[in-house]
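A protein record pairs a chain with a discrete description of its three-dimensional fold. The shape at a given residue is found from the number at the same position. Here is what such a record looks like in full:
>
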Amino acid sequence: MRITDYGQLPSCFITATDTDAGKTHVSCEIVRAWQQQGYSVAAFKPIATGAISHKGQRVSEDALKLAAVTGQTAGEINPYLYDKPASPHIADINQSFALADCLKQFKQLHQQVDRVLVEGVGGWCVPLSDTLMLKDLAIAIGLPVVMVSRIGLGCINHSLLTFHQIQRDCHLWYGWIANIKDPDYADIDSNIGAIEQRMTSGTVKT
């Protein structure tokens, strides 16, 4: 299902076809739509890489953007921040990701508001440590999974591969969002149509 009405989404986990697909942009739009519906909201980006300096503090640029919408602090949104802009499992060898602590923080946040948006890092199979991938975090959190697809050259392949992998890994698939970063791209409609058609008619073989 392609999602166009963000306000009707439940609390969800946002993943993407790849890095720079536009997860944070879409996440901010979803949170704004929830606010317009009258919901109390919060964002949670458990892991971020590529820290920046903001007012003398190390922060995630993505978390800052989310905080500007939700009213939280960047630190409340993003507990695990690594300096190097790389896959989390190599971004900081001196800081390890603790899944149990992350889940505890999520559950506390989930109890305080009507809607929580959890934003992943990179794509569905990005390693978080030597033993964990992003998909393990998403499955442990248990929210409906929404995929952001950057519409452009290569998006059909990336979208379908991610869609089928999510379906193989869990039963949390909810739908996908087409993020049009370049409105002048000539094949927007045909690419979106190709993805929709193949998601609807395709089956997952196990």
User: Anything to note?
Assistant: The chain has a mean pLDDT of 94. Strands lie at 12-16, 41-44, 47-49, 52-54, 57-59, 80-82, 115-119, 145-150, 173-179.
